């Protein structure tokens, strides 16, 4: 099922279903008088993130913090089938429950067995990390978890019934910290703030592509169809690659991309007059891990590979526009390049950006300023940021401003 179809269904049929279900949930809650206290010895935690490879990486501090404070508890991760391979490398996760949304038929046929698995899990605390998805809200409710946690914006107050606990979604907070705010509602003894790199086994892709460890620059010119406006212009990537090869001829250039992005990357490569290594569509997710982990430098749009680079602590030049680097680019090894124009960041307010794809926020990023960062790094002048990856909020570590209890 394509993204546009999913959005239409989510904003109409699914939203209406959630609003109706809200009435019954509120009535049932008053009748059953369930104890929603968070000071208990919980046995099962569930974390749900359907969309966004990078967001799953950013959820690893939350996963580690749960396991640290509730070592005997079972952690279930809920996502789509395509994300299973990304979630499995984390040993803190005890079970992965997936939904196949590759087509309408697969989604319909698999939905009720999927919900049955959730009910069978007897979930105590369910953390819904989706911000805008009515479908995710519906799934959260049908899980029948004792405590159901979610986020709210101005337009989503109708969810205050179907969730038992809600947190204000602060777009000025780094996303990993936004996720951690949910567990700070519990009487915990501390949090883990660092992203955790995935453990994996992969074929020797470096040998396959005839590249050497720490002797190549990895470039990701892609952005998922969730927000294609995050792409920097193809012509500017071509110019940047030419400048790098001219100044640093011993550094190979490696381009990456998924199978769905292969044609886009191939068109970019066709405009380059010098040799590059094009791996788009030729590796698995574990192959991508290996290519990123062994790169000298990563240059990328705001996308999943950027977050993977953060997890592997690779020096990363991150190109931002529709999203804010304050929220998604906050990392020791990140060098964000960002032009904050009037309408940016727009992703938190619009399903379709105000520019309708004419992303001036990305077009204003000049090749020369990106290349200046490349020179600085390759000449050995870059040092990781000294700031802590943790934000200290006022009050105790579990203090949660804006928290709404049912």
Q: Any overview of this molecule?
A:
With 406 residues, the protein is of the alpha/beta class. It has helices at residues 3-32, 53-58, 60-69, 84-87, 104-120, 134-142, 175-183, 205-208, 234-247, 262-270, 285-293, 304-311, 325-328, 360-363, 367-378, and strands at 44-48, 74-80, 95-99, 125-128, 147-152, 165-168, 216-220, 252-255, 277-278, 297-301, 316-320, 334-338, 404-405. Helix 1 (3-32) packs parallel to helix 6 (134-142), helix 3 runs parallel beside helix 7 (175-183) and helix 9 (234-247) packs parallel to helix 15. The radius of gyration is 22 Å and the shape is globular.
Q: SSE string, helix = H, strand = E?
A: HEHHEHEHEHEEHHEHEHEHEHEHEHHE
Low-confidence stretches: 387-396
| Spatial gap, N to C terminus | 35 Å
What general form does the structure show? globular
Compute the number of helices: 15
Q: Average pLDDT, to the nearest integer? A: 88
Radius of gyration: 22 Å
The fraction of residues assigned to DSSP E strands is 5-15%
| Main beta-sheet strand count, sense and barrel state | 7 strands, mixed
SSE map:
Blueprint: H1 3-32, E1 44-48, H2 53-58, H3 60-69, E2 74-80, H4 84-87, E3 95-99, H5 104-120, E4 125-128, H6 134-142, E5 147-152, E6 165-168, H7 175-183, H8 205-208, E7 216-220, H9 234-247, E8 252-255, H10 262-270, E9 277-278, H11 285-293, E10 297-301, H12 304-311, E11 316-320, H13 325-328, E12 334-338, H14 360-363, H15 367-378, E13 404-405
């Amino acid at each position: 099922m394509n993204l546009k179809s999913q959005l239409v269904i989510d904003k109409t049929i699914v939203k209406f279903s959630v609003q109706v279900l809200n009435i019954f949930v509120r009535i049932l809650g008053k009748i059953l008088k369930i104890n929603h206290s968070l000071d208990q010895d919980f046995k099962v935690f569930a974390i749900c993130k359907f969309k966004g490879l990078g967001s799953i990486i950013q959820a690893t501090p939350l996963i580690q913090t749960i396991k640290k404070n509730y070592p005997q508890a079972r952690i279930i991760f809920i996502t789509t089938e395509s994300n299973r391979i990304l979630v499995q490398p984390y040993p803190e996760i005890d079970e992965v429950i997936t939904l196949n949304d590759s087509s309408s038929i697969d989604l319909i046929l698999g939905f009720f067995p999927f919900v049955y698995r959730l009910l069978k899990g007897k979930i105590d605390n369910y953390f819904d990390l989706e911000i805008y998805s009515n479908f995710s809200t519906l799934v959260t409710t049908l899980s029948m978890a004792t405590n159901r946690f979610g986020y709210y914006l101005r337009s989503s107050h109708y969810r205050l019934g179907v969730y038992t606990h809600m947190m204000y979604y602060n777009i000025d907070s780094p996303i990993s910290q936004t996720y951690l705010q949910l567990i700070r509602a519990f009487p915990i003894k501390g949090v883990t703030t660092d992203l955790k790199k995935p453990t994996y086994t992969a074929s020797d892709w470096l040998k396959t592509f005839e590249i050497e460890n720490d002797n190549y620059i990895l470039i990701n010119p892609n952005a998922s169809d969730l927000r294609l406006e995050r792409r920097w212009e193809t012509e500017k990537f071509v110019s940047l690659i030419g400048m790098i090869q001219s100044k640093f001829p011993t550094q190979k250039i490696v381009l990456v991309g998924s199978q769905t992005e292969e044609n886009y990357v191939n068109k970019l490569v066709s405009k380059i007059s010098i040799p590059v290594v094009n791996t788009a569509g030729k590796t698995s997710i574990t192959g991508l891990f290996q290519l990123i982990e062994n790169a000298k430098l990563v240059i990328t749009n705001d996308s999943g590979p950027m977050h993977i680079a953060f997890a592997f602590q690779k020096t990363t030049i991150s190109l931002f526009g529709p999203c804010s680097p304050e929220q998604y680019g906050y990392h020791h090894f990140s060098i964000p390049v960002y032009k904050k124009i009037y309408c940016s960041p727009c992703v938190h307010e619009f399903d379709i950006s105000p520019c309708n794809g004419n992303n001036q926020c990305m077009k204003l990023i000049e090749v020369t300023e990106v290349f200046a960062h490349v020179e600085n790094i390759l000449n050995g002048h870059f040092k990781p940021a000294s700031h802590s990856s943790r934000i200290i909020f006022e009050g105790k570590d579990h203090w949660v401003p804006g928290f709404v209890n049912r």
